[in-house]
Structures are given as C-alpha cells and as structure tokens.
Amino acid sequence: MDLGIRGRTAIVCAASKGLGKGCAQALAAEGVDLVINARGAEALEVVAADLRGRHGVRVTTVVGDVTKGEVRERLLAACPTPDILVNNVGGPPPGDFRNWSREDWIKALDANMLTPIDLIKATVDGMIARRFGRIVNITSSAVRQPIDHLGLSNGARAGLTGFVAGLARKTVRHNVTINALLPGPFDTDRIRSTSVVLAREQGKTPDQVMAERAQQNPAGRFGTIEEFGAACAFLCSAHAGYITGCNLLLDGGAYPGTL
Question: At residue 259, does pLDDT exceed 90?
Fold first, then answer.
C-alpha cells in the first residue's frame, strides 16, 4: 500500500533507538525525508547513515535534549516547514509519589507535556497554510490504564492528551491531524529500565521480570519497534486525514476493557 507521503518531510524526536527509531525507519521506507533528533550523537549518526543507504532519503541529524529550548530551535531551523511531526520524549523515572518533589513534577510536565506542545505550536500553523500536516505524539498505555509506579508519566502524558483532544478538532478541516500512539510493553530500553526497578522490589532478576511480563501479555510477547513504526507511518499517511484526536493503543491486548 502506497501511503502517499513520498517526498514529504518529517521531524522525528528521540529517533536513535526504540520507538522513535521504529517510526523513522517506517517513514524513510515510504520515501519521507527526515530530520531526526536524539541526545547521543554516535547512535543518531548510525541510524541516519542506515536510512540514507537503505532508502535513499535525505536525513539530517540534530543532536541534543529536545526538552531544551535551544535544541528545539536548532531542530526547527533544520526543518522549518515539516509535513510530519513525531513527538517523542523519554518518560520520567518510576517510583513512589511520596518521594517526588515539586521539581520532579515540573521536570516531568516540561518533558512529556510542554515540550510536545511547544513543537506543535511552532509547526501547526504552517501545516494548516499548506493544507497538509500529520502530528503524532508517542505517549503511553498509561493514558488509558494508569500504571501505579509511573505516576509522573501518568500525569504528564494525560495532560498532553487532554490538550490535544481540543486542538485536533480545530485543525482537521485543514487536513492537519493530531493523534497519539499509546505503547504498551515493547522491547525497548525503557521497559528494561523499569524491569530493573520492579526486580529490586520483587526480589527477582531483571530477566525474570522481563520474561514474566512478556508471558502475562495476551500476545505472549513484547511488541517490536517495526510494528510500532508501521502504525505511526499509517497515521502520517495521506489516507489518514479522517482520523484525528485519537489515541491508538498498541499493547498486544493487555488493556482489559471493551472500548
């Protein structure tokens, strides 16, 4: 299926590994030119070289922490008129809310709510003027089903989701959509780091926790970044103009609800 976005340009944040990398790979496979960002220069350049070599697309790298204003400025300078924006920022650490300070909460909100909103603000009017835009926010399954030890993430990502719910209804008539992908358990560094915390609490090894979590999922496994990237690419496609303000859950059936 031709997604109809060959020759478009996308910004993909946190694209050197994990879910962001999966999204960058899927978009490049569709012929989308990329501006990709991550904190680690070496890993980011490896991804960029691979995408250029395999798909023949233009790939520009912007190294730095996207939660920092000056990094966002450089990102937008490298791609001032994106057709596609994939917001992705690593989640805050797990823990007990009793141990979190006001500064911890502000940091989580700045990273997982305010940073994506700032990038949306900087790009959405241009998309409206050009009558094409696809914005995808990578959030978390915790938006649908809160995870007790990820309270910082629960709160910040739910805030972003609430904001987008209103804006997405205003932009869609201009062929600009805003949606979210809600990942459940995927085989990434993030799930491995949270497994270390859970292992310590449960008196198990991280590998034991990982294996148990995989088997507890209805799919009997974790998701792959390729599966995630394919979902992102479709939401960014020319065929997805009637989908907006939606939160697509990718969790192997873990969420127990009917809706």
Answer: no
